[in-house]
């Protein structure tokens, strides 16, 4: 029986909404993990999942990650995420996006959407025809534009903090960084790394992405696949594609001593963070270092100012350093230290919502 026919395991989520519009072909899932800190904010992923169960699982995992990400970033926002089940290359249409927008509007502000894998700024402008609760719009429409810009900048800040913690200098100069995925975020990250004096090795399944990078940054060396990348002589591994990059197969053969990347849900399952720690690999939690994008689009809610958003994203450097130091002093993996910090803020600040304000 499919998930559209039976309720999923809600896994502690506040709300999971299944959206279907047969005329446009829309099948979407909106997952709201927590609104303890404010309305849930998280992007919409448009992806051809193999099954409904895979789509629901991704929505649940991503929305929980967004709650922790927003909490650590100091935002007064909860965590949510949406997935549209389909192929964005063939299934995306104005009718489908507008139908989806109406479902977002029906939540009356409990959930704000934005871009993610398979959705782009022009898509947000279409969705905004039907709902007020959308960010990541084009600058022509008063939006923040491409959130990949500050996502990459935040990852770079987190990488510098990890380098300082491991090697004593907040720079990637003279280091070799392996970037898996040079699409939306990866290409901006590559520029930061090259400007900082790093050597970059990369891989991507997309010929278009590889071609773009080869044309613009010919000094970047390409390898055939992720296995070739992680077994090469790199100092830092940056997963910037889909989740699950750190798993039972990849961690034992990973040669990098630091992992800092833009992908969401990099740990394939609980326990991977301990495997990394046992191998002496320093892992900066993904939902911390990739929060620059959500910082950018959240600023749009209040009237976007890029410099203000960038200043806030710069704080990822300080927060990453603090978490790495806390993890070391408490003898726990950084992912555990980050989870504790996020959970503490959600509990302490969320408690205030029980205080009645007339």
TrEMBL record:
Record-given protein name: Valine dehydrogenase (NAD)
Listed A to Z, the keywords are: NAD, Nucleotide-binding, Oxidoreductase
Q: Which one Pfam family would you cite for this protein?
A: ELFV_dehydrog
Active site per UniProt? 81 (proton donor/acceptor)
Q: Which residues form the Glutamate/phenylalanine/leucine/valine/L-tryptophan dehydrogenase C-terminal domain?
A: 145-354
PANTHER family per the UniProt record, alphabetical: LEUCINE DEHYDROGENASE (PTHR42722), VALINE DEHYDROGENASE (PTHR42722:SF1)
Organism, as annotated: Stackebrandtia albiflava
CDD domains on file: NAD_bind_Leu_Phe_Val_DH
For this entry, list what GO says about its biological process.
Answer: amino acid metabolic process
Report the domain of life of the source organism: Bacteria
Family the entry assigns: Belongs to the Glu/Leu/Phe/Val dehydrogenases family.
- GO MF annotation terms: nucleotide binding; oxidoreductase activity, acting on the CH-NH2 group of donors, NAD or NADP as acceptor
State where NAD(+) binds.
Answer: 181-186
Record's InterPro entries?
Aminoacid_DH-like_N_sf (IPR046346), Glu/Leu/Phe/Val/Trp_DH (IPR006095), Glu/Leu/Phe/Val/Trp_DH_C (IPR006096), Glu/Leu/Phe/Val/Trp_DH_dimer (IPR006097), Glu/Leu/Phe/Val_DH_AS (IPR033524), Glu/Phe/Leu/Val/Trp_DH_bac/arc (IPR016211), NAD(P)-bd_dom_sf (IPR036291)
The answer to keyword Repeat applying to this record is no
């Amino acid at each position: 029986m499919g998930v559209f026919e039976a309720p999923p395991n809600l896994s502690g989520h506040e709300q999971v909404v299944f959206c279907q519009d047969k005329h446009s072909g829309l099948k979407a899932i909106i997952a709201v993990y927590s609104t303890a800190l404010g309305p849930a904010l998280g992007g919409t992923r448009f992806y051809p999942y193999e099954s409904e169960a895979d789509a629901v699982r991704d929505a649940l995992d991503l929305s929980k990650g967004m709650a922790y990400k927003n909490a650590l970033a100091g935002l007064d926002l909860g965590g949510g995420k949406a997935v549209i089940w389909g192929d964005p290359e063939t299934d995306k249409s104005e009718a489908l996006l507008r139908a989806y927008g109406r479902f977002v509007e029906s939540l009356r502000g409990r959930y704000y959407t934005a871009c993610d894998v398979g959705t782009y700024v022009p898509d947000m402008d279409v969705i905004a025809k039907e709902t007020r609760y959308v960010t990541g719009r084009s600058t022509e429409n008063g939006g923040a534009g491409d959130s990949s810009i500050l996502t990459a900048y935040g990852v770079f800040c987190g990488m510098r903090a990890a380098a300082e913690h491991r090697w004593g200098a907040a720079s990637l100069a003279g280091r070799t960084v392996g970037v898996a995925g040079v699409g939306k975020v990866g290409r901006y990250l590559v520029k930061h790394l090259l400007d900082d004096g790093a050597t970059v090795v990369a891989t991507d399944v997309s010929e278009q992405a590889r071609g773009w990078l080869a044309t613009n940054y010919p000094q970047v060396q390409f390898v055939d696949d992720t296995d070739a990348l992680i077994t090469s002589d790199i100092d830092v591994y940056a997963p910037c594609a889909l989740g699950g990059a750190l798993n039972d197969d990849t961690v034992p053969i990973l040669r990098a001593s630091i992992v800092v990347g833009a992908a969401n849900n990099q740990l394939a399952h609980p326990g991977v963070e301990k495997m990394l720690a046992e191998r002496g690999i320093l892992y900066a939690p993904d939902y911390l270092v990739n929060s620059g994008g959500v910082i950018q689009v959240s600023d749009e809610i209040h009237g976007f100012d890029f410099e203000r958003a960038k200043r806030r994203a710069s704080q990822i450097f300080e927060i990453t350093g603090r978490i790495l130091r806390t993890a070391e002093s408490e003898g726990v993996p950084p992912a555990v230290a980050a989870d504790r910090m996020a959970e503490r803020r959600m509990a302490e600040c969320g408690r205030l919502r029980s205080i009645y304000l007339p």
